[in-house]
Specification:
Length: about 250
């Protein structure tokens, strides 16, 4: 089966590195027009601009803090002005601020909830308004297995991802009547800037996996690319665990 995303406009938050970058590049390679977003790392954004997928597409890259409403409005307006629509929104941006609960500061809690969950609310609010008008759209939220099973010393991160799952299920019920699907994907262990130095998490994932966990990123990207396409149009309100660990 060949997957085509030709002429689809896909907005991916936090997409100049890690999972977001891998998704954005796959979408471009399959014909999509991608709105690439980042917040701080100008050097990484420049590297992304020079990549082969960007060179072959008419994607745009926009610097914006998607946890701030005014910047999301600016981002959405820029995308609409250039492309006239947004077919798919990928709420991907995320951070970690790890600590046990006794030592976790309120700012550590608030920062993670704001970036990981509030940003999804703000982006979805403004993109959904456009999708309702066009009577079509797909919203895919990048949650985590930690939102289902929890993780010690990551209560803020786990809570934000659990919130993303509840957000997904509720939003699917609200937007389905407008032909807008809403789903969540839960990656397994994927080595990114968020977890590269946490060796115990890597070893635990390897120990609990029933298959080679090293394929996790490829599987996640392939699955999400198909989910964005017109090959799948009747699925909504679902949480997909893209992992080989049996819970």
């Amino acid at each position: 089966m060949e997957v085509s995303l030709k002429d689809k406009v896909i907005k991916v938050t936090g997409s100049t590195k890690g999972i977001g970058k891998a998704l954005a590049e796959s979408f471009m390679e399959n014909g999509a027009i991608v709105v690439v977003n980042y917040h701080k790392d100008d050097r990484q954004a420049e590297t992304m601009c020079q990549s082969k997928p960007m060179a072959l597409s008419n994607a745009i890259i926009i610097k914006a803090d998607v946890s701030k409403e005014k910047e999301v409005i600016r981002l959405c307006n820029a995308a609409k002005e250039k492309f006239g629509k947004i077919d798919v929104l990928i709420n991907n941006v995320g951070i970690c601020r790890d600590s046990d609960i006794i030592n976790m500061s309120t700012s550590q809690w608030n920062d993670v909830l704001t970036v990981n969950l509030t940003s999804a609310f703000i982006c979805t609010k403004y993109v959904a308004n456009e999708m309702i008008t066009q009577k079509y759209g797909k919203i895919i939220n990048v949650a985590s297995l930690k939102g289902i099973i929890g993780c010690e010393k990551q209560i803020n991160y786990s809570a934000s991802k659990a919130g993303m799952i509840g957000f997904t299920k509720s939003l699917a019920k609200e937007l389905g009547k407008y032909n807008i699907s809403v789903n969540a994907i839960c990656p397994g262990y994927i080595e990114t800037d968020l977890n590269r130095n946490i060796t115990e998490k890597k070893f635990d994932a390897k120990r609990r996996s029933t298959l080679e966990y090293k394929y996790a990123l490829n599987d996640l990207v392939a699955f999400t690319t198909v989910l964005c396409s017109d090959e799948i149009n009747g699925v909504s309100g679902q949480v997909f665990n893209i992992d080989s660990r049996i819970m």
